[in-house]
Write a structure and sequence with these properties.
Helix content: 25-40%
Largest sheet: 8 strands, antiparallel
Number of strands: 19
Number of helices: 15
Radius of gyration: 25 Å
Strand content: 15-25%
Structural class: alpha+beta
Length: about 650
């Protein structure tokens, strides 16, 4: 049905207009009604309960679809042909009634209720003339009583603190109880999340993912709308706007030409919630990117998922990425969790005559040119190539931990590379034992390329920069370690702790140009666990081949290749079943030393991800610790590897 609405004049890249978004929202909302309780307070989608149980799942089902309903009606200035406000009003009345069999889990009964309460408060604010103002005084009182336990409550010092701020700001707006000191303390705490160039960290750790856009930018600007006229909100709004504008410059460079967001970080099952940041830019009227670029990014993301089976044939959003795939979710995720995707409908809160809907779509950066971008806060080197529309990230700054920690590597955060065309291995043996996008020391003296791989979480970022030729370079170092982790603890997508064995240090330099990354690796000193050195490449579905020091995987749309230099003289392909949301079976290419890594020796490997099989790889020549990299396009870069791994700093000439 959506394809029949395509308008290639207004939207030459996606064909999507506001009518597509409205149709998608309506489809999701009507499908949800089939799973609602009698009074609509609980929406219990099919599937196994999440880690917090069916009562929380049902509350999520209500609150998260309520987001979509609120955006839909707000943007229509109250016009409501689906009778959404009356339908959800019944749910509000029953959910907040302590005596109702449909009553909601309270904020002081389960912490997850604090998350959902923020969505309820936000929609009540956005739709106030058509919902809140029409509730009976008794229901209004019960809603206030339901939200009131947020006051003075403990919230984790991450994006959750915004849930308390939003709830208490709504309570203040309707004459309910609130604590000004909670809001002020929360705002002060979130100031500590600020990083360079408009980025936020999700707390004190090196935690960078889609929460930066759909939470850490989203709530500050929404809060300033809720608190408009208050001196603190009015003073903060220009600051938040400047940060968002700068962040969006990077964010539009992280969307593939096919509309795929970067497949990195937890809560990926929220899917097109990743579009919320671009709609937020339009709603906040940032100076750049232009409205046509913002809609192109947002519509591209939604069309990507709609074209790959999300929502499904029944209009449901399942736990998965494209189609259902439970391993992508964390243990806190239940069948109602994917409906945070409703944040992606924020654009519908803007009227049809808003510039973001009337402007002609403009191309994404990856559709207009090749680029090499340094994103300093998360420590990412970003390469986008127009020929295949793929965006790649080489990661020297994100692990959802701190320098010096010894956790296991989370495949969602600590891999060396992420892209819009591949997924990290998220299930099975190689999720816990790094293979794809890794540089590891292997224990044991068994089969070549086998043994238990080391972890890199806790690495030190030495620097990231853009060279005079445009080539990107980044460096980090870490002490290889092995962890006997406690696998009975809940999985929130982060690394795990446990009993640790330490090994030798590893120094790594990444040099990135186009679809290629050259990895320069050294193990400075021998350690107790001095096994083989292995370099893992991009995981892909397809057919593969391996010979000597090169291994490749190919399919109709992408190619992955690893080519080992001197000393990395063996290679292979590891198959993984049901390990990726993108395919039932993938292959991971790797190369390795045939024996223990030699101390103080520099090794090099070329790693490729692109749309076509490359004609030739980069060539690395060594003169002591100086690497001369000759790229296939004729560019040559010269790097002093020893100096780069001895110097500490983030950027600005370090490399």
């Amino acid at each position: 049905m959506l394809g029949e609405l395509d308008d290639l004049r207004l939207s030459p890249f996606t064909g999507w207009t506001r009518a597509h978004w409205a149709a998608l929202a309506d489809r999701v909302l009507l499908a949800a009604r089939r799973y609602a309780s009698a009074s609509h307070a609980r929406v219990s989608f099919p599937g196994a309960p999440g880690g917090y149980g069916p009562d929380v799942d049902a509350l999520e089902g209500f609150a998260r679809t309520f987001l979509a309903a609120g955006f839909r009606v707000a943007g229509e200035n109250g016009r409501d042909p689906l009778n959404l406000m009356e339908w959800y009003a019944e749910g509000l009345a029953a959910g907040t009634d302590p005596g109702s069999p449909e009553r909601w889990v309270r904020l002081d009964e389960h912490d997850q209720s604090k998350v959902e309460a923020a969505s309820i408060a936000l929609v009540l604010h956005l739709t106030r003339p058509w919902l809140w103002d029409r509730l009976t005084p008794g229901v209004q009182e019960r809603v206030v009583e339901y939200l009131a336990p947020a006051i003075g409550a403990h919230y984790p010092p991450i994006n959750w603190i915004w849930f308390q701020i939003v709830v208490e700001q709504f309570l203040a707006s309707v004459g309910g109880p609130f604590a000004r000191e909670d809001i002020e303390a929360g705002l002060a705490l979130t100031d500590g999340f600020v990083r360079e160039n408009g980025w936020y960290a999700d707390g004190a750790e090196r935690a960078y993912d889609h929460y930066v856009g759909w939470a850490l930018h989203f709530y500050p600007l929404i809060w300033t709308e809720m608190a408009a006229g208050e001196p603190d909100a009015d003073a903060r709004r220009p600051v938040y706007l400047r940060r968002l504008e700068r962040y969006l410059h990077d964010a539009v460079h992280l969307v593939g030409a096919d509309g795929s967001p970067l497949i990195q970080g937890r809560s990926l099952t929220y899917r097109f919630a990743a579009a919320a940041q671009f709609w937020l830019g339009a709603r906040s009227e940032v100076a750049a990117p232009a409205p046509g670029v913002l809609r192109r990014a947002a519509s591209g993301i939604a069309r990507h998922f709609a074209g790959h089976g999300a929502p499904d044939e029944e209009g449901l959003l399942t736990l998965g990425w494209h189609r259902p795939w439970r391993p992508i979710a964390q243990s806190y995720s239940g069948p109602g969790s994917p409906y945070w995707a409703a944040k992606g409908f924020l654009g519908l809160s803007l009227p049809a005559d808003h510039p973001v809907w009337t402007a002609v779509e403009e191309p994404l950066p990856v559709e207009s040119h090749d680029y090499h971008l340094v994103v300093s806060s998360p420590g990412w080197l970003v390469s986008g190539t127009r020929a295949d529309g793929i965006v790649r990230v080489t990661n020297h700054g994100t692990d959802h931990s701190h320098p010096g920690s010894t956790l296991t590597d989370s495949p969602l955060y600590a891999r060396l590379g992420y892209s819009t065309a591949t997924s990290p291995v998220l299930s099975g043996e190689h999720a816990e034992h790094p293979l794809d996008q890794s540089v590891v020391i292997l224990t044991g003296r068994g089969e070549t390329g086998s043994g238990e791989p080391s972890h890199r979480t806790g690495f030190e970022t030495l620097g990231i920069d853009r060279l005079a030729t445009g080539t990107l370079a980044g460096a980090s170092r870490w002490q290889a370690h092995w962890v006997e982790s406690d696998r009975t603890r809940p999985d929130h997508g982060y690394g795990r702790d446990g009993r640790v064995r330490r090994g030798p240090w590893i120094h790594l330099i990444s040099v990135v140009r186009g679809p290629w990354e050259v990895r320069l690796v050294q193990v400075p000193e021998a350690g107790d666990e001095q096994g083989a050195l292995r370099v893992g490449g991009w995981p892909l579905p397809g057919t593969g081949k391996a010979r000597k020091a090169a291994a490749a995987v190919s399919n109709d749309t992408a190619h992955s290749l690893v080519v080992g230099g001197a000393g990395l003289d063996v290679s292979g392909l590891v198959p993984a079943e049901d390990a990726s949301p993108l395919a039932a079976r993938i292959l991971v290419p790797w190369c390795a030393t045939s024996g223990p890594a030699r101390p103080r020796t520099w090794y090099d490997a070329a790693v490729f991800l692109g749309g076509r099989e490359p004609e030739k790889p980069p060539i690395v020549r060594w003169a002591g610790s100086v690497a001369v990299v000759a790229w296939p396009d004729g560019t040559t870069d010269r790097l002093e590897a020893g100096l780069m791994t001895r110097t500490s700093g983030r950027s600005g000439g370090v490399l």
